[in-house]
């Protein structure tokens, strides 16, 4: 008889990447490169971000100089661009779930280390804007402290060494492919949290791919579970969006039997980039009609593989007519799950119905019910 594999992986230490994993750096990177390239009469192509995520600073510089045929050396490029970045560090926001994860692991006494391809001084400067982060890490390893950056395993092996941990007991959390490769080469468990949309398929070497840090389940790795889930929902800091209801793909009612009163996603691109795609719930205020419970999806609808992000709130109420063009205001108060693909239309519909029941019930909890009084829902009614 062969011994069965233990169900949980015994992780004792966690190693975190910074840019794109804990911090929403991509926006700042695009902003700086755009500003820089304009001076050379060039236009930043946002698809170029794929070439630079997770790379060392010199690799990024080399790629940009080459791609845009810039009349300078990668070193000259770096010396101009570095101060442009540091001016923006104070504006970089934590990604959804980053603060929650750091607080949780810290409270459970799980040693954590930051390991990034950026120079150590840059890492320290960036995290200084985030309360409580610096003191939470046993060690910080920068790309300038090792010979080879990711995808070489060196940076993670050094992180394990500084924590006195065996690599096989370390869990790496990474958004980039070079980072995932480095973690696997170091003999560690790796959870990938791709920072760019629709990348999950290229992360097959990771032990698990999740959509955002909100979807991390530490108990899968032998660590203490989060204690903030309530009845299948995760409370979040409420956020608010609203506008006229627009036409969607015309399939919500027809194909699924679930109408969704779409909002124009392009009006909220900045706000949406601060939140992950996924299934959320909250309260919906409709001009002239009233306030209703609501469950929604934000994202690319993987089952239909949309190319545009959509905002699709399903109001948990039976209406007798359409209300296109009416002003719809949303208070989004909790998170349910990531968007997913499904083997059949029936299973997608069943899951959305289940989301509806979860939201319906949760919104009666005082912590969510209180947002029904939010003035935003009835503003301009
Ligand atoms: P579209 O693809 O244009 O969004 P849907 O089939 O999803 O089409 O239908 C959505 C429309 O149905 C909404 O814009 C709204 O006018 C209407 N509607 C009726 N009942 C509801 C409901 N309970 N929740 C959301 N929208 C509803
Ligand atoms: N689409 C998906 O492809 N995957 C999902 O997991 C998913 N979840 C949803 C959850 C809710 C609560 C709602 C209202 C919609 C969801 N959708 C999802 C979007 C659905 O496919 C979309 O509303 C219709 O295709 C109409 O465009
Ligand atoms: Mg719709």
TrEMBL record:
GO terms for molecular function: ATP binding; riboflavin kinase activity. It comes from the Eukaryota. SUPFAM superfamilies: HAD-like, Riboflavin kinase-like. GO terms for biological process: FMN biosynthetic process; riboflavin biosynthetic process. InterPro entries: HAD-like_sf (IPR036412), HAD-SF_hydro_IA (IPR006439), HAD_sf (IPR023214), PGP-like_dom2 (IPR023198), Riboflavin_kinase (IPR023468), Riboflavin_kinase_bac/euk (IPR015865), Riboflavin_kinase_dom_sf (IPR023465). The keyword Transferase applies. Pathway: Cofactor biosynthesis; FMN biosynthesis; FMN from riboflavin (ATP route): step 1/1. Keywords: ATP-binding, Flavoprotein, FMN, Nucleotide-binding, Transferase. This is riboflavin kinase. The gene is LOC103707307. Residues 234-364 form the Riboflavin kinase domain. It comes from Phoenix dactylifera (Date palm). Gene3D superfamilies: HAD superfamily/HAD-like, Putative phosphatase, domain 2, Riboflavin kinase-like. Its EC number is 2.7.1.26. It is an enzyme of class 2 (transferase).
